[in-house]
Design a protein that fits this description.
Elements: E1 12-17, E2 25-32, E3 35-39, E4 49-52, E5 58-65, H1 70-84, E6 94-101, E7 105-113, E8 128-130, H2 132-140, E9 145-151, E10 156-163, E11 166-173, H3 176-179, H4 182-196, H5 200-209, E12 217-221, H6 223-232, E13 233-234, H7 243-256, H8 261-264, H9 280-288, H10 291-349, H11 354-363, E14 369-376, E15 381-389, H12 402-413, E16 418-429, E17 432-441, H13 459-464, H14 481-484, H15 497-509, E18 527-528, E19 531-532, H16 537-542, H17 545-558, H18 566-587
Parallel strand pairs: 1-4, 3-13, 4-8
Antiparallel strand pairs: 1-2, 2-3, 5-7, 6-7, 9-10, 9-12, 10-11, 14-15, 15-17, 16-17, 18-19
Length: 590
Amino acid sequence: MARQRETQPSQRVVALDRQSDGDDVRVMLERRGDGYQLSTTGDFDGVPLVRVAPWERSLVRCRGVDDLPGEELASVLQILGDGELPERVPAHRRGCGAVPVEGQGRTALLTAWMPTADESGSVDDGSLYTPAPAARGLAVSLAEGCVFGSDAQSGVLIVAARGPEGMIVRSLRESPDVVATDAHVEQRLREAATAVGLHEDEVRSTLRSAASPWEGRRVGWSPRIGASLSRLVRGWSETDSQASRTFVAVCAGMLAVHPDGTVRALASLRRDQPAERKGVGDRVNSWLSSRRHVVLACIVCLLVLLFAPLLSAKAREMLLTSKVGRAEALRERYEADARLAAIYGQLNERVWPMSKMLAEVSAAAPVHVVLESVRMDSNAQIDIEGFVQVAPGGPMLEDPPETLLTRYESALNELGTLGSVTVVRREIVGDSVEFQVTARVRNATARGNLPMDFADMPLAEVLYGEGASNTATPIVAAASTSTSRGRPSGPSSARSTEERASRDSAIEGGRDASGDRRPTSESGPASVDGVPTPISDADIAALDRGELLNQWRIRNSASRDEKNDAETRARLKEEADKLIARYREVGSGG
């Protein structure tokens, strides 16, 4: 016996049971979880079809088997089928499966669809078949009880029973007049019930549940089997008037969509032998068996021999042409890459525009930010060192000196030529802030985005407001860097006291109306002989934040000037402390 085909599980199938009166029963069954959904109407097109094989040509053998793994159980069923079923039944008309029985393991159903002489074995319509005894066997596996089906026209009686001692399924061929009598059916049911240990009450209840025959066909089942089937199949009820007509079709559909492969094997029979697909060698041999095909093959071979060199040369020409085209494209790409490499080489050898970059770094610095050194190395890094200082008597600054460093960092970031601007050192020394900034050169040749263009607004107007002059001598000169910031002694620190007095005299002498860079004001001078005049608490309270910061810077610087006597410096120090205290009070909302 050929190896049993393992059918693929299907979720939905249409089951067809051909009735004797010509009115076939067609239902659609869909597996949903552990149950099934029944539909007797709808669109059945495109759904796999399983048919119930003719009752009178069905054969069944029933055997108990162990519950083995799938492959081992399939091998056992093949062996049992070879020994129990007739040899004249072809493999495609055999169905050997095993249904699970609760508490009893499995029961093997060896079924066959006996062929007849008038059947044609040349065409396979693709439909699957299941024998009617297999459908009864599945029904009795659901619960203990009896099931029978009789067809008086064909003289077939199928009985199935399950009890404490096992399960049995029989398909009997008898005379039509005997099959139609209740006494004969009761006798056969009693024999099956006795074999499996069922009480006679099950036989009587099975006969009572059977509906009146239609066209000689009659189906009945025990109440427990009907209740189990009603719970398992939604849409089917044993109390329905059509329940007996659809009983066999519903059980056949359950076999076809069952999740167990050994159960589905009972619904895998075919009417005709499926056409086997021939191999390449077999198809060639079949084609060459014709003389006409042989002559055609010889002509083709002759043409190949004649034109093969020409075709080979043409193919080689096309291949070489494509390679030449690719080679030309590669050459042009190489030349373009070489030109680009030469340009990059020239750019690498060029010296950076140092004057431009130094001008941009300096122009980005706010007023009062002094750059002492700018260093650039080969790794495209720039180091900037400097300090922030406000000279006494200089222009008014709205924020403390520390904020100027933050503004300078932001301006360097916004240039566009630098990147990764970082303040690595910030130190407050006296009235100044020393700092060190590092940055990476991003695009040295790009035009920097400078915060201010002094060509549009002179520095004097930036410092002192509109109307200020940029050519007059300033009123206040910035203090020496080494003196105010405590730098080490050097040439500038070795100046004599006479030189400092001469410088101060020159500064004081230059303070006239024509040499003042500030615009003219009606408020009058804020100091006498270079020393700020005393300021009262009421005057301090009347000043705004900008004036407080400006007056604080003036008095703070003058309090450190050694040319003033100790009493004047003490007064200036006290006034500076009051001014900065008031400045902080105003800044905090006081």
